[in-house]
Amino acid sequence: MAGLVGAMRRYVLPIVLLCAFGIRTALILVTKSYENPSTWEFGRIASYLADGKGYALWRWDGSKYTQAYSPDATPLPSAYMPPLYPLLLAGCYRLLGEPDATYLLLQGVQASLGAMTCWLVYLLARRLWDAKVGLWAAWACALYPPLVYMASTMHPINFYVPAYLVVVYLAVALLHADHWWIWLAFSACSATLIMFRAEALLYVLAFYIWIGWRRSKIYITSSHLISSLLLLVLLMLPWAWRNLRALGHWVPTTTTLGYNLWRGNNPEATGTGRSLAGVDEPTPQDIEAEINAIPLERDFELQMDKVFMQRALHFIRTRPLSAIALALRKQVYFWVSDLTHPLARTPYYLIPTAALALFAFAGLVSRKPQSGDCQLLYLAIFLPAGTASVFFVLPRYRMFIDPLLMIPAANGVSRLRDWLLRSAKRRSRP
Prior knowledge:
The protein is an all-alpha fold and about 425 residues long. It has helices spanning about 1-10, 10-30, 40-50, 85-95, 100-130, 130-145, 145-150, 155-175, 180-195, 200-215, 220-245, 255-265, 285-290, 300-320, 320-335, 345-365, 375-390, 395-400, 400-430, and strands at about 60, 65. Helix content is about 70%, strand content about 0%. Helix 8 (about 155-175) packs antiparallel against helix 9.
């Protein structure tokens, strides 16, 4: 009987992964999300790339600067978005065109990455806690509505969520081993993550600092760490060099730092980039006028970003209490729900995200992990939350760390289940 139970347990994880892929694929097919989906700025950049006009986004339409795609336009060079997802879309456009089948294929890949995310969550949870917590976390990841919905959207979040899990797993591994191939993989995966999500550069650098501090007494670790960091710089260098040639300035990631800071720090800001009514906040007319007065030069994006940066810093300097209040409000939106966003108002998003945060905090305080060092997990969870306080909040910013939250949440659920079983046994005794 014990052998049968053990054999059944071996099949649980494959069943979880099949369920994760099947549910996501079914959602894509039922909702037909591949029919003319929104691809945001990524799709516009990809279209210009496919047209042979380079990595570009903004153009002058005769009266103002606009992001609207036009096949006849001569757009300005861009570094508005990290490059990997637009490059992926552009490759598909060049090979397959832009029919529904192209988006269906890409969403099928994203459904596979959703299943991979469940597997990565299991591996990380098993390393930090145990296999039982790992399976609970994998099931949660497979069935969690926001992550299921994520596969049906044409957005790089489908790629950078599993990439972040890989980076965190390798960082945890480096706390206990110093093999050169782990450092090599850490550099490569970190560079990939940053090329999908620009602010991940901050998280990766924090991981390097944390690993170096935890293992500072081991000389070989220091040499491997420095070599790995240099490799990371080399892997990011082609994009930075391209930006130097295209924009005339050294841009290691993107040109949106000032804009993102302004969206969360201005007199009309709610902390989310939307009004309390759920409508996108329009750019004030005086800022629009200042942007449209910028000369039509290749560094337009950088000049525009300076406008937003100056406005954001002026607001923070002159109204520090308002900026602090906004930062606190952003944390509420981040951990509970961003009710200014239409997606976050739906029950299938609002209830799961609030429940996940509750179980995750309960799991974090209920028991320390049996193996490994969970402090890096805390770092990986709370760094993105802190970033949101500085800039602004969107539902996908919480979704970025939701797979990590499922690990302590699974611990909380597992302990609750064990407590209920023990209580039931005690009550059943005569």
